[in-house]
Amino acid sequence: MTKFTVNGNPVEFLMDPATPLLWALREAAGLTGTKFGCGAGLCGACTVHVDGKATRSCQVTIADLEGTFVTTIEGLSDNRDHPLQQAWIAAQVPQCGYCQSGMIMAAAALLKDKPNPSDEDINAAMTNICRCGTYPRIRRAIRMAAAGRVDSGVPGPEIDAGEAAARVPALKG
Ligand code: FES
Ligand code: FES
């Protein structure tokens, strides 16, 4: 069985039940914000939430997920305004950007469990790899979001949401 909820929408995937969640999201659902890095559970670029827990989507099959609630970076907030997304912008975290959706999803799961994480909590939760070395800015952004220091004055993405939706099927709502 391959029925579960993705970003609040009930979905039945008509695919081989052994398909990794990563490929179901990217190839069938068009949710390309979740990235393929290593395919081996090492890099974290593919991190999504399964029932609120950070999960490397290359390591679970769609058969594993029957009845669960999956959230991807596209579903983290209604208007790309999750405190972490705002903090990421304010701290100018991304460089190439490839790892960043996985990083934000890992950080979001952390803050949900531990709203004021210690350095040790951050170290334990943020095991994703960034080839560009943005780790100091990631830590700063997590601290900003945890402290509630980003709530206004942060410019949104310089792309119209309607225009983005027209180009990316995953964003159509
Ligand atoms: S692609 Fe899943 S952990 Fe690297
Ligand atoms: S920003 Fe380039 S891999 Fe992290």
Automatic annotation (TrEMBL):
Keywords: 2Fe-2S, Iron, Iron-sulfur, Metal-binding, Oxidoreductase. The keyword Transcription does not apply. CDD domains: fer2. Residues 1-76 form the 2Fe-2S ferredoxin-type domain. GO terms for molecular function: 2 iron, 2 sulfur cluster binding; metal ion binding; oxidoreductase activity. Pfam families: Fer2, Fer2_2. The keyword Cell inner membrane does not apply. This is Isoquinoline 1-oxidoreductase. The lineage of its organism: Bacteria, Pseudomonadati, Pseudomonadota, Alphaproteobacteria, Sphingomonadales.
